[in-house]
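Field: sequence (string)
Field: structure_tokens (string)

Example rows 1 and 2, in order.
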Amino acid sequence: MSDTTSQTSQAGDRSKVAKIAPADRGRTTIADGVVEKIAGMAARDVVGVHAMGSGFSRTFGAVRDRVPGGTRSVARGVKAEVGEVQTALDLEIVVDYGFAIADVARAVRENVIAAVERMTSLQVVEVNIAVTDVKLPDEEEEEPGPRIQ
């Protein structure tokens, strides 16, 4: 008799699980680094953004990029705080000379919000942008290409 009861309760449990949509049968978490990479890529896509990060982080990144096996960090200049349903972002950008900083910042904010919300389904509550430098036309590149061709 106990076998019949356990079979009946197991069948009842399975029918309860079957009524739950597959998408609701687990939890998805998104790491801060994932959001930072998405935001970094989206910010770099905006015309007028020369680079991401403060002077120190760009210098350190340039050294790391030259080390064999080193990779470019698309998240340089981006800091994200990710919750269960929301995220907030802080970005540091360098703007090319001649571009209106307010317009570039607005375009970066819009592009970052669209990309992060589309790819993660997280609500972006704020995108703070700090313009850390302006790239002048006659300034030498901090990250020159290889010297040997």
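Row 2 begins here:
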Amino acid sequence: MDQQKLRTLVFEKTGVRIDIDDPIFALVALNEAVLAEAVERHVALLDDATADLAEQADALLAAGSVCRYGAGERPLATPATPLMPLTPAVAPPLAEKRLIALAGGAAVLCALLVLAGQALLLKPPAALPSTVIAKELTPEQALAIRHGEKLNKIVQKLDPKTRNAILAEMQKP
């Protein structure tokens, strides 16, 4: 760890000056030690994996497997047990087809039975009337409507300024 190089790098990137006696260098040393230990562990794991791979390759060579990678040839892959059956696919027997058809028919019949039961047993709620309409108006209501219609005709005949003032007053509660 070159402290002078680190000081220069920090100053160039951030503009902050660091002394050689600064405690931050203790953290740098600690980080370096932890990183070295982690690298050693990973190197040991890689060495173990490489040794295992070498043992497996030796076992394959001892079993009579031929490796010609050095000569530029690629060996043909011949698995010990076939991955796919060598016999062509056989159609299911007639009894299995009947069983599948029977199960499908039962499923469709059950679905229809459920839908029919819902249609018969579940009735939608009765719609509530949104407004109640009276068949006849009371005499007071009829008089108020006639009075309102007369006032509307009178207001329409007034000049615009007065009409707007009256309409503004009518909007107030």
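free_text_note (row 2): The radius of gyration is 48 Å.
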